[in-house]
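Problem statement: downstream parser choked on a complex file, so we are re-checking the raw output for the ME8 run. The parser issue turned out to be on our end (a line-ending mismatch), but while we're here, posting the original submission so the record is complete.
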Amino acid sequence: MLTSATITTPIYYVNDRPHIGHAYTTTISDVWARAQRGMGRDVFFLTGTDEHGVKVEKSAAARGISPQQLADENAAEFQRVMRTFALTNSDFIRTTEPRHIAQVQEFLRRLVARGAVYLGTFEGWYDEGQEEYHTENRARELNYKSPISGKPLVRATEQNYYFKLSAFSERIAQHYAANPTFVRPVERFNEMIGRMRDGLQDVPITRTNFSWGIAMPDAPGHVVYVWIDALLNYVTALGLGGGDASTQGREKYWPADYHIIGKEILWFHAVIWPALLMALDLPLPRCVYAHSFWIADGQKMSKSLGNFVDLPTIERYTSVYGLDAWRWYMATQGPIAATDADFNARHFHEVYTSSLVNTVGNCPSRVGAMIGKYFAGSLPTDADRGGQWPQKCSEVVDRWERSMERFDLVGASRCGIDLLGQVDAMINETEPFKLAKDPANTPRLSSILNQCAQVVRLAGVLLEPFIPQRGADLATAFGGSPGAATAWADRRRYGTIQDGTAIHKVALFPRVEATAMASSSGASPSTGSDQPRQ
Ligand code: ME8
């Protein structure tokens, strides 16, 4: 039986158009999903859109359209991006779908029935832009200003339904202690542990000041707080609250292995979400992974500064360098750790040239060309049966598997590059082009080129989740088949290309002019009209 694996991205707000941040989180999740599928696991990869709340209501009003129209328009745009970027999500959940709404209401009924939700009066500090309440302590720490927009927090009083978050402090602390990798990276985990020390206060989970949301069951006038609605997407998509035909048979995908999110929404995922799951008697996800932010040329990205990497900008990169190059840059140079990452066109170009053109492109092309020239494109035999390679390769594949398991995509990306580097080194050392001048060297030449080809194929397997299009070309050129078409036990093994197999020369990554992307971040020209964002 296949083991399953589940990964999720945040569901994105439909009051914004897709940009580098969304592309980043979704792409790294896709790399992981593809890697797990390649290893033969049954993967559920979830993304979608967060469509309720005041922000969407206001953006729609500003454009003179209904919130549903705005949501439909932008959800379609996000879905188009998933397709054009070859992202392999298993479902795309929208929070205005009936299947989601019905289950959110069912979960709220359960929370009320279990005494985890009650009616009370709230007075506190509210961040209008983020739709987030803060405790007095936290508000003071923030200088009574939104950490995101810098606008003052406002004093708010409301009669609301509350979630008894305070009742879960102890259990969450225990879970943290027992699961030291529950939140990653560790710097982020420490932050959460620090904030938990303040104690947890109950949180209002309904609103009465707007209507664009899910109605609280049996409570006329109350609309479910957008964050509760949104968090529940991770389990409504799997039908844990009832579901419909589209969610049937998906219970096995819970708990998720990874919730991949940006650091600004970690509190919701590391504290509120686990407490909700505990209150619902559902198991907790294995890991909440909170990456940092892309910044541009050392500064926060902002549309008014003109360094904002929006969808048209991304599309310019993919048309100049190709989709795989974009993915490679996202997955290997992005803010996966606790520090922000700088996006700039020069760096993009350097990484493209050194890793993709000079290594991933060049090495297979060299090997393919020599087999073409000296053995008419047919894999010669290796009397040495791989020498040291089978052992070396098995170690590298083990390292790759472990890196993927830990969501260390940078570490995993190096495995394929390392193998190709070692092939290059062997070619430089043994100089097959010199050996080829004397027929007496043919057995040795055969062995060397057979070994090079075997390692190149294997490196391609390890690189394929990052560069699926060129990875498939590489697999085909070296006598294999791309993706999960073959069992992992065979794909991960050194030496599976049979003697006599046709090996082709491949041109994977063409050189690109250094000046192809004009401005430094390559961002679209400024419109000057939009708010700065994270
Ligand atoms: O927060 N760098 O949606 P959102 C890297 N709907 N990643 C970035 C980024 C940047 N500069 N900017 C955004 C929401 N992101 C809620 C989520 S989940 C139950 C509800 C990415 O559209 C990052 O993953 O504002 C961040 O968490 C997400 O986009 C926020 O997307």
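For whoever reads this later: The mean pLDDT is 93.
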